[in-house]
Amino acid sequence: MKKSTILALAALVLGVAASTAFAAKDRLIVADQYDVTSMDPIGHNDVPSSRCCFELYDTLIFRDNQNVVTPGLAESWEFVSPTEIKFVLRKGVKFHNGEELKAEDVAFTLMRATTDKGAKIRSYSQDVKDVKVLDDYSFVIELKAPNSSFFNSLTHSWASILNKKAVEAAGDNYGTLAAPPVGTGPFKFLSWQKNDKYELERFDGFWGEAPKYKYLEVRSIPEANNRTIELETTGVDIAFPIAVNDLNRVKDNPELVLQQVPAVNVTYLGFDTVKAPFDNVLVRRAVSAAIDSVGMHKVVYEKLGKNGSVPRAIVPAALPYSIANDQPEHVQDQDLAKKLLAESGIDLNKTYQIWTNERKERQDMAQIIQGMLAEVGMKTEIKVLEWGAYLNGLQEKSHDMFILGWSTSVPDPNFAMSGLLETNAGSNYTFFSNAAFDAAMDKGRKTLDGPERAAVYKEAQEILLDQCPQVYLHSDDNCVGTQKYVKGFEVGSNDTYNFRSVYFEE
C-alpha cells in the first residue's frame, strides 16, 4: 500500500475519532458572572436565576429570540374576554418527580405568585384574580382588570409551572438545597455549590425534544478576565458576558466564536430616594448634572461597538412607546450641579457611598463618577459587593447610591418600568414612590395598544426624567463567547439564554 494511501486512511480514522469524541461529549460547561440567588421562580427577579429556571421549568407559552410566541406547556389558548384567558394543557407532561402535570398545578403556581412569597415578582402577578380549573387539562386565568402586558409576561420565569405536591411538601425550603426544585423542564436538579457552580442532569422523561448532552454545569466566575481565560483554555464551552477589553481576544481566536447583539437593558446609577440627602430631588439632579455620562461611556465602553450607547430614557429605544429618541443627549454641567447642591442644603462634609457589584465595567464607572462628584464638592467612597450580598444589601435600604442594570425580558414598556420603579415593586431599590407615575403605569396596563397607550407611557417616562430616581449610564450589547464546536446556541436581545438546543460538532 502506498504511503499516501496509508496517510489518507489515517486522516480518515482520526477524523472519525474526533467526530465521535464531539458526539460523545456529554457535559456543557458555562461560565456566568453571577451565581443563582434562588431556584424558586418567584424567589428572585435576577437574570442568572431566571436562566437556571428556564432549564428546570417550563412556562405555558414560550418566546423565541424574534419575540414570536409559541406553545409551551399549553398547546392552545383563547382570549375569552378582556379579563379571561382559557388555556388547554398538553397531556402526558411529567414533572421530575414522576407526577403528571395537571391544571391544578398551574392554578397553585400562579396563585402562589400573588401571595407575599411573590413580592419580588409582584409586577408580573399583581393583576391575577383567580385561576379556575375546568378539568385536569384546561383552566381560565381571570384578571382583576384588563391588562395589555399580562399575556406576554407568561413567557417570563415568574410563570414557571411548579409541582403542587413537591412545593407543599417542601414548605418555605422549596428551591433550596434542603428541598431541590421540581419542574417539567429538560434538566433536573443535581447539585448546587453556592458562589461556585450548579449542575443539572438531563431529564429523560422530558415532554419535548431531549437535549443532546446529559449534564449542564454553570460556574460562577465574577472576574471577567478569568472567564475569558477559561474559554481560551477550553475550561468552559460558553462564557458571558465577555468584557469590553476581552472582545478582540475572543473575536481574533480561530477556535472561538463571539456573538454580539444589541440588548434591551439599561445600566443606571440609582439613589435611595427615601434617605437623606437623596430624598431631595435637587441632590439627585445635581449628581446627574455632575456626571459626564457620554464621556464616561466612551472611556469604559469604547471597544463595544456602535450599539453600545448612553440611554436617554428608561424604556429602551427598541421597545414600543419609548421616548428615548426624542430626548437630547445628556450634557454634563458642573456649574449647575454646584448650584443645585448649594440650594439643597446637603452636608458636603459627609462621605456618601457608591455601591457596585464585581463587574469590572461598573467598578470603572464608579471610580469615574467618584472623581466627577469630587469636582463639585461631594465626597464618596466605593463599596464593592458579591452579587448575592449586593442584592440583599439593596433591599435593606442601607445604601446611598448604587450601580445596577435592568433587562426588559418581556418586550413591553410596562416591564421596562413597573418592576423597577412602581411603589413597592420587587426590584425597586431606589424605593421611588410617585402617585402620578403609579397611576400612569396602572392606566398603561389597562389601555389597548395605540395612541392613548403611547401617551400614557410618554407621561410615565417624563415623570422619571423630572424626578431623577436614576441616572442612565449605559445600554449594553450582549456579548457571549463560545467554543467553535458549540452549535445551536443563539444570543438574543435579552439575557435569558437558552441552552436546551446546544449540541457539539467539530
Low-pLDDT regions = 1-21
Extended strand count = 20
- Beta-strand content bin: 15-25%
Biggest β-sheet description: 7 strands, mixed
How would you state the average pLDDT, rounded?
Answer: 92
How is the largest sheet built, in terms of strand order?
8-9-10-1-11-18-12
What coarse outline follows from CA principal-axis ratios?
A: globular
Instruction: Specify the number of helices.
Output: 16
Q: How large, in whole angstroms, is the Cα Rg? A: 24 Å
Helix/strand/pairing class, anyone?
A: alpha+beta
Helix content: 25-40%
Q: What is the distance, rounded to the nearest whole angstrom, between the alpha carbons of the first and last residues?
A: 30 Å
Structure description:
The protein has helices at 3-24, 47-56, 103-112, 122-125, 150-153, 164-170, 224-232, 247-251, 281-290, 293-301, 334-344, 360-375, 387-395, 413-421, 435-446, 451-467, and strands spanning 27-32, 61-63, 69-71, 74-81, 84-89, 128-135, 138-143, 187-193, 197-202, 215-220, 238-239, 256-262, 265-271, 351-356, 379-384, 401-407, 470-474, 477-483, 486-487, 503-504. It has 506 residues and is α+β, with helices and mostly antiparallel strands. The chain has a seven-stranded mixed sheet with strand order 8-9-10-1-11-18-12, with helices on both faces. Helix 9 (281-290) runs antiparallel to helix 11 (334-344) and helix 15 (435-446) packs antiparallel against helix 16 (451-467). The two termini are 30 Å apart. Mean pLDDT is 92; it is low at 1-21.
